[in-house]
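Here comes my example:
=====
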Amino acid sequence: MDRLAHSMARFNVLTFSTGATFAVLFMVLLVGFYPRVTTALFTHFFYLIAIAMASMLLALWGMYSYYYKWDRYSVLSKRRHALLGFTMGAFIWIWMVIMTGIDTYMTTGGGPNAESVTEGNIGSFGAAISGIFNPMFVEMILHRTFANLSWPAFALAAWSAFMYMRSKTETDKAFHDWASSVGLTWGVAFLIVQPISGFLNAYSLSYSVSSGGSYERLVGEGGSTPTSNLLYVNLAMVVGLFVLSNVAMYIGAGRHPDLAGRRPIQFFGLVAAAAGLCALFANFDYGTPLFWLRYIAILVMLLATLGATVTYVRGRMSFRYGSPGVAYRVVLLSLGILAAATALSMGLMKSNSRVPYTVYNQPQFTVENERPPSGFGR
């Protein structure tokens, strides 16, 4: 665990500059393509964005101070190390919560009880808070929090499977084999929550009467839309994540000296796969007796995967690490790639269901050739 913690801290330090570069590029594109909308959003949520930035800076201060100072000179005990990690996680979570509020405001328009933005209250802290607490706010926080714990865990499992192939010593092979099991366990545990919080997201959006057609675009009411097609594609990828997770746990349970737990995991995995396939093909109109069959199938898939996960975790204390099979590594690499693709596709689907003025590039919000105002040059 100590080696894994140091590796994750090093990964964050080395990759943050790449993320910051893309963030700056993203801001330039936002201002360039949507100058009026971006300016209005930044003005309206100015104080909340300032709080989010302060939270980000505190997380960065802790991360860089740990990596370049405290860890190098071994001045931190394990307890303080863990406390610092949780503190940095809390600060970056505050950033995510505030950004989620602004993001869901762009999707729902603030909801039916939101205070309208006018020249008199734009930038007002009260009006900004009113917009943040919109119908999707709490549900999206739950969805993103667990997603940000699930898909990186799958990425860790995939990376460990890759690093196992590059390892030269038995110690390194045992570590990477163990780390892949840790990533798989955490990834599956948080994945189980995702369909439930996703359903709550869509349910809350359907009751946002001021959503400007966001829910209709999401589910394709009145005809198929790119977003509704993505909704089905994402369902297929989620089913794939559950099926591959069960396969990985079944193969990984072979590390147990007595192969204990493989048979129950096999049973739970087959039930999850059958339920997942049923969810993909069950598509009945609202009001028909079989309409809820898809939701029932998804629930069965969740419960079966939960049973497999509990069985897998109970046997992990007796696992012997160091020699995973090729099939196990292939499944983990596939899981990591599929989890990352699902996260990206989910974001694209949500962005496509936003209120039109935030994403559909209406003529009144595009950059047009205009004569510069007097006093600003020629």
Residues 357-378 have pLDDT under 50 and may be disordered.
